[in-house]
Design a protein that fits this description.
seven-stranded parallel sheet, 8 helices, alpha/beta
Amino acid sequence: VIIQIFKLYILFGVKMSKILTTIRPLDRSGNDRIEEIKKYVNIVMNTSCRYINFNFMSLKYDSENELEIQTIIMRDYFKELGLDVPIVHLPYKDNLYFTDDKTDENEIQLSIMQTLKQAVRLGAKIAVFHAGIAVINGNYSEKETIKRNVEFSLPIANLAKELGIKVAIENNVSANIATNGERVEPSPKVLVNVCREVEKELNDKVLGLCYDIGHVNLTRYDMIEHLHSSVDYLFTLHIHNNYGLTNTEVSIWKND
């Protein structure tokens, strides 16, 4: 995957100094999240990076008001340190399956929309959320996945348009959902179609793609071909590595 990543650098002219560092404490059970986040930020301050991809999953809150208060604290803290937050990651469910029961779907959609308002408060230009997967009779359904992702994304994109921020749908990988045990994710065609349908509805390209390199490395798709087919709607990249077995999200310099 490292060779593929450097091909992407060449393809898009990415400058190493401009790569964002993700702030996402791994201990999601801790109570004092603000202090935990600051520990990670202190590590960033020892590097040349001044761009933060803030993951709202790092925060712990029980109400929209509490979320707003914590966001304001983080905004002022980042500003004091001279850190920019051009991109954020909105809340997500590790494996969002579209079924007849829309409880999980509605819950995460509401959480995304609440958090989107706070993303604007942080000064973010792009907010990332995960795509969902439709499974019929134990098998991945491309047609239904497109339909349900459009339905799921449309209210989010409409709110983003009102708030003046872009949103990006990320290719995430499910865990062995097909009957043959194969890990799947929506193909480039699926996510491009989702973005295209939402653009038609809103008459605005407010929804684009977040291309996650590590997730693609876990699937059957060719990384460069996958990216080329998505380029018209490409808003941002997630760059991390793994061993092609599990989503370990290790440094891009680590591989087998």
